[in-house]
Amino acid sequence: MTDPVEPGTVRPGGRTARVRAAVLRAAGDALAEGGIAQLDLADVARRADVGKTTVYRRWGTVANLVTDLLLDMAEQSLPRADTGTLLGDLTANAQLVQRTLTDQRQGALFKAIIAAATGDTRTAQALRRFYDTRINEWAPCVEQAVARGELPADTDPQEVIRAVSAPLYYRFLVTGEDLDNAAADRAANAAVAAARAGTYRRNTTNASHT
């Protein structure tokens, strides 16, 4: 059997792109319905109305399929907001996370992928790449806030963006508390307040001794 293509190394077009889209949609549906334990390449092929040999040849393993699914999710995610203020931008970010996690399909899908990442190195690496992509997409809104003088010059943009989504994922995965608009707004406001106070400065250790 031909070795499967490494996910992310090919940008398919035409029929190949349609097949990939159908397979990834089917994989996402299967994950949302049954979790990683129930994900089966033959079942995904059936759901996508694609030949089993096509799926096995292109992806080869469940880990490869999940990796490609995460790559596609990162590529298809909505671009960051640009409201002109840090609070506006981070509120938009928090509301996007909140909507995604409370969506019936997307929420179940993320839970399945996160669960899979705890036991599979490749899935964990793909999940980190997904979040790195999203964090880097939103980091410029913090950089713009620094340029406007809203934040200390040495603020770490990635840390600010992580601070927005962290409490939302905590509610989603750990406490089960309501993940509503108010929770999203609080997360954004808390991140802005902490950033303005210098909590996310890269040189906090040195700054505390000056």
TrEMBL record:
The lineage of its organism: Bacteria, Bacillati, Actinomycetota, Actinomycetes, Micromonosporales. This is TetR/AcrR family transcriptional regulator C-terminal ligand-binding domain-containing protein. It comes from Dactylosporangium aurantiacum. InterPro entries: Homeodomain-like_sf, HTH-type_TetR-like_transc_reg, HTH_TetR, Tet_transcr_reg_TetR-rel_C_sf, TetR_C. GO terms for molecular function: DNA-binding transcription factor activity; transcription cis-regulatory region binding. Residues 40-59 bind DNA. Residues 17-77 form the HTH tetR-type domain. Keywords: DNA-binding, Transcription, Transcription regulation. Gene3D superfamilies: Homeodomain-like (1.10.10.60), Tetracycline Repressor, domain 2 (1.10.357.10).
